[in-house]
Known about the structure:
Elements: H1 10-24, E1 26-28, H2 29-36, H3 40-52, E2 56-59, E3 62-65, H4 74-77, H5 82-93, E4 101-104, H6 108-111, E5 123-127, H7 130-141, E6 147-151, E7 155-157, E8 162-164, H8 166-172, E9 177-183, E10 186-188, E11 192-195, H9 198-209, E12 211-217, E13 229-232, E14 239-241, H10 251-257, E15 260-262
Parallel strand pairs: 4-5, 4-9, 5-6, 9-12, 12-14, 14-15
Antiparallel strand pairs: 1-3, 2-3, 7-8, 10-11, 11-13
Helix pairs in contact: 2-3, 8-9
Amino acid sequence: MGVSRVSLAGEERKRSIMTLLNEKGKVNVSELSQIFDVSTETIRRDLDELEKDNKLKKVYGGAVKFKVEVEPPHYEREFIHAEAKRVIGALAAELIEDNDVIIIDEGSTALQIIQFLESKRNLTILTSSIPSLISLIDHQKRGLYDGKIIFIGGEVNARHLRVSGPIAEKIMEDFYVNKSFLSVDGISLENGLTSYDLDRALFTRKLIRSSETAILLADSSKIAKRTVAKIMDLPDIHMIVSEEGPPSGWIPSLKEMQIRWISPVSE
């Protein structure tokens, strides 16, 4: 390949790797091993450390630039993967029984549950989502929802139309629910459940701890993805509802963690 070799200390080598990555968009383990005259194991350790610092994303055989993502505002999220979210909402509603006390969190996927509640009786729904609150009130006025509505107060995020923060967390200390229906921004076997926003992550953690059964609603774009703020480890939830089945490599781990995966193709 005609690659010139240089000998660099660890930190300097990592800086040089980042320079190459920014120039090329992708780097290869074997090529880096030749350039820096070190073993492929050393390069993989460098890439591991750089990934932990959110400076790149490891892929098979090398690494690519870390794509910085931000959470879209709520009105945009409603239209992203809209059909998948509708399917997930219908599947999630089938898990709700008469007299349940449940949480519908602020996610645009969880919002889809509400349209499928007409046949349920005597529910109590807690929500931190302003759109879900409005939808529940509208359905109740039209005789399409039978039950109580409890809005979880707290600091309002106008961009995402939700509440979170210490006030909301304090309110949840007075409640236990049968089932919580939760949205997250990323799910991975290694990193668990993650969010773009730390306040939201901490509040979602509180919701999970208040629930007998924690049910994750996730379209396929969230699977095998990590974002910035840790919520909980994957074994802390009980079910995942998605429009697609789990990645084949996940099946043994899901069985070991006793997590039920629900999708249109579930047995």
